[in-house]
Amino acid sequence: MVRPAGTSVASRIRLPDRFRPSRHVPHFSWSASSRWEVRARTVAVLLVGLWVFGTGDALLLRAGIGNTPWTVLAEGLGERTGLSVGVLTILIGAAVLLAWIPLTERPGLGTVANIVVIGIAIDVMAAVVPTPDRFPAQLAQAVLGVLMVGVGGALYLSAQLGPGPRDGWMTGLGQRFDWPISWVRLGIEVTVLVAGVALGGTFGLGTVLFALFIGHSLAWSLAALRPLGAKAP
Questions:
Q1: pLDDT of 123-145, one tens digit each?
Q2: Residue of higher predicted confidence among 124 and 11
Q3: How would you class 7 by CB atoms within 10 Å of its CB: exposed for 0-12, middle for 13-18, buried for 19 or more?
Q4: What digits encode the pLDDT tens for the residues 59-112?
């Protein structure tokens, strides 16, 4: 049998929605109609997502085998400028927001909440999550952290109240060029990681795991949410 040009076995396989990673952020029954809409269900999903996201960051932090690429970048810039990682994280966030301009992304309630809630969640949860001292446990905790950041990111993005600075860059590039968000996120994280290491930032296995798998964790989490209330485009 001769197949039409440009087709493949993989392209003809139809998997159920829940098994296909999402290319973009779907619109759900709880999604806001505007980025500043205050609706109880929508805000609840937003806050839960941000808290889960921050908990994932705290798990990575306490695993002790490498932080996220953005922290590596902040550390590297700190080596060159003498500024603290916290100050540089704010400045990097502001710079990323400026990168939204050509992508026509707009901030919203979720953008503001991203900065506040995730920071609080990291501080609170870092005080209660385990600090393992054996590598197998450290690795397991780092993997769980990456998974939780993906789940949290999917939840808060599904509220459609505006992404955080870095996620807005991801979704903006995906929409502008019709690229899958998993690969967009992978490209961003790897680029940031390489720049941070070149500037003198430190990283570990946890950093590499985050850079390689956070985009896929997010895409699969969005797919898993579809049966809960995704609307047809």
A1: 788 889 999 999 999 999 999 99
A2: 124
A3: exposed
A4: 988 898 988 888 888 878 988 998 876 677 778 877 887 888 788 778 889 888
Quote the DSSP letter at residue 1: -
- Structural tokens at position 207: 């950093």
CA–centroid distance for 146 within its chain: 9
Which two structure tokens, joined as six digits, stand for 215?
Answer: 């985009």
Nearest Cα residue to 222 out of 72, 22, 27, 81: 22
| Dist CA 99 CA 176 (whole Å) | 13
Q: Write the CA distances from 231 to 101, 177, 215, 221, integer angstroms.
A: 28, 23, 22, 16
CB 66 within 8 A of CB 203: yes
DSSP 133: -
Helical spans, DSSP H, in the chain:
9-12, 40-63, 69-81, 85-99, 109-126, 135-158, 165-177, 181-198, 205-225
151-196 residue pLDDT tens = 999 999 899 998 788 878 887 888 888 888 878 878 888 899 899 9
Please tell me what DSSP assigns to residue 230.
B
Residue 28, beta-bridge partner list? 230
Q: Token pair of 199, please?
A: 């500037």
One-character DSSP codes across 41-84? HHHHHHHHHHHHHHHHHHHHHHH-S---HHHHHHHHHHHHH---
